[in-house]
Amino acid sequence: MEAASSERRAGTRTAGRRLAAGRRVEPAAFLFLAPSLVLFVVFIFWPLLRTVYLSFHGSDIVGRPTIFVGLDQYQLMLSSPTVRDVLANTFLFSLMTVVPSLVLAVVIALLLQQRIAGIGVFRTLMATPFAFSVATASVVFAIFFNPGVGVFNSFLQLFGQHPVGWLTDPSRALASVAVTTVWLQLGYCVLVLSAGLGAIPEELYEAARLDGARALAMTRHVTLPLLTPTLFFLLVVTTITSLQSFGQIHILTRGGPAGATTTLVYSVYVNAFAFGNSNFGLASAQAMVLFVVVLAVTTVQFGVLERRVFYR
Amino acid sequence: MSALSRTLTYGLLAAVTFVLLFPLLYAIAGSMMTPQELASYPPVLVPRQPRLQSFADVLRAIPLLREYANSVIVSLCVAAGQLLTATLSAYAFAFLRMPFRNAVFAVFLATMFIPWEATIIPNYLFMADAGLINTYGALILPFLAAGFGTFLLRQFFLSFPRDLYEAALVDGCGHLRFLTTILVPLSRPALASLGIYAFLQAWNQYFWPLLVTKTEEMQTLQIGISRLRDIESAVAPNFILAGTVLALIPTLVLIYIGQRHIVRGLTAGALRG
After folding, report:
1. Residue B206 contacts A where some CB pair is shorter than 8 Å
2. Within a domain: A289
3. Structural domains of chain B, with CATH
4. Could you report the predicted ipTM of this complex, rounded to two decimals?
């Protein structure tokens, strides 16, 4: 109720300002916006429309659009088992990167929140993965996964286990790529969560302490509920990032073995650009699916965030 | 905190830090080992006699310095371009009166939600038609404007005292002069955050440079490093690690010096509202 009336008041204020705005328009505004707008149209909006156009057409051998095929490319995606596997891989990969990233990041962020000597050193050191790009991280992890000299197999050997083909075993490859991705984005998740933790007012902990809450109860009933907006933001960001993952797949597995790590984005690359395929029609349809999924995830974020995720 | 739980906390922190640091430590140690040392079991973690041979090898095998220069040029241009376009548009949104301001701002925000991969095919075709494949133009032009930068700077500009703005204009200060002599100097922290953020993003790019560069001379550092594996695959991982360490130096320096700015840039989206 209160929120609604304050919103209405705010509404009148903006309306009043807009009335004033109508009287004096500054032409400079258009000049200032023009560079960005032109770049957006040329490199984002127009290409997006062209992707839609391409996805409704067939492609000749050099990739130029041929005849209008309607939704055929989309239908192919759902009916062809190999193309359908791509969607399954994409979903699995997101699950395998997002969930561990968030869980580990919460644990680490809570650890870093402890007030003990030397915590600043830990915090600085933990930022190190930021220095890695997808390419540099993947190159190092490729060596870790190496069946002969890699540390992962050395580790198994330590416990008397047989060596494993981390990237060559179809049942393991996707998880191996996911491990690399989790390591790569863990630093960012910890950083965002630490910022979220820092924003929780100290009084709330004080009040809980007076009520006799112990550390664990405080974490469960104060910290985590108040952290939900941050967690939710991270959930959306890491989901979108995992959907867009490309470099680690290209470097570690080239989508293999037997297509086991071919995700939507990697499939766009293969169909459009690899081996002289130039199947821009199918690749565009897949790119549109990616666009719609990302849009849906973001819309959900805004929808839920409006309703506030935490319970006060 | 009891002694036990303190010990436990330190133990956990040390373990987590070790795991997060391990790839870097391994890359540095491995780059200075002999191939035999690196392949030995049980694994050696510290080189017995650190050697720099692998660094010399990698510099001879690929035009690493040229790739370095390419990455620096591209990332600096992208960062400078985004700073310029975002400052101008954020200024318009924060200070100037215009019709449909909210609608236009929504268009800017919308660009943040369109994944680059969804537009990559037409963008590639555009570059091919324009004859820009394998040029700096292809690597730089598409990234000169970004909705995120406008969003970030607008937030910052909105907190700027309105009175100061009006006083400056009453005194006959034009928009451009107000922007360059008053607003920009006062917005240095926000500009630094955006600049570092944009630089790092451009520096780390992989998919697009992979598509639009065709020769070693135009490759960015990321592509060059990923191709090291094709040169001497499993034969000499220490050679690959040496290249990786060289590629990591600028970003390592940047994150330790500019950590404050990076944190602000990265978390700007997280803490809104």
Report:
1. yes
2. yes
3. 1-51 (no CATH), 63-235+246-267 (1.10.3720.10)
4. 0.88
Give, as one character, the DSSP assignment of residue A59: E
Give A96-123 pLDDT, tens digit per residue.
Answer: 999 999 999 999 998 888 888 888 888 8
What is the spatial distance between Cα B105 and Cα B149, in angstroms, rounded to a whole number? 12
Contact at CB, B270 and A305, closer than 8 angstroms: no
Cβ-defined contact of A287 to B117 (cutoff 8 Å): yes
Contacts of A291 (CB under 8 A, 6+ apart): A48, A51, B114, B115, B118
Q: Between residues 131 and 190 of chain A, which touch chain B (CB distance below 8 Å)?
A: 131-144, 146, 148-149, 151, 154, 157-158, 183, 186-188
Based on the structure, what is the number of domains in chain A? 1
C-alpha separations of B242 from A6, A98, A224, B35, B54 in Å: 61, 31, 42, 12, 6
Most A CBs within 10 Å, among B97, B166, B235, to test the A interface: B97
Query: pLDDT digit string (tens) for A9-49?
Result: 444 444 334 444 444 678 888 899 999 999 999 999 999 99
- Which of A44, A138, A199 has the CB atom closest to B119's CB atom? A44
Show the domain range for A295: 78-306
- The pLDDT score that the predictor gives to residue B171 is 83
Chain A residue numbers with beta carbons less than 8 Å from the beta carbon of B1 are 114, 116
| One-letter amino acid for residue A93 of the chain | F
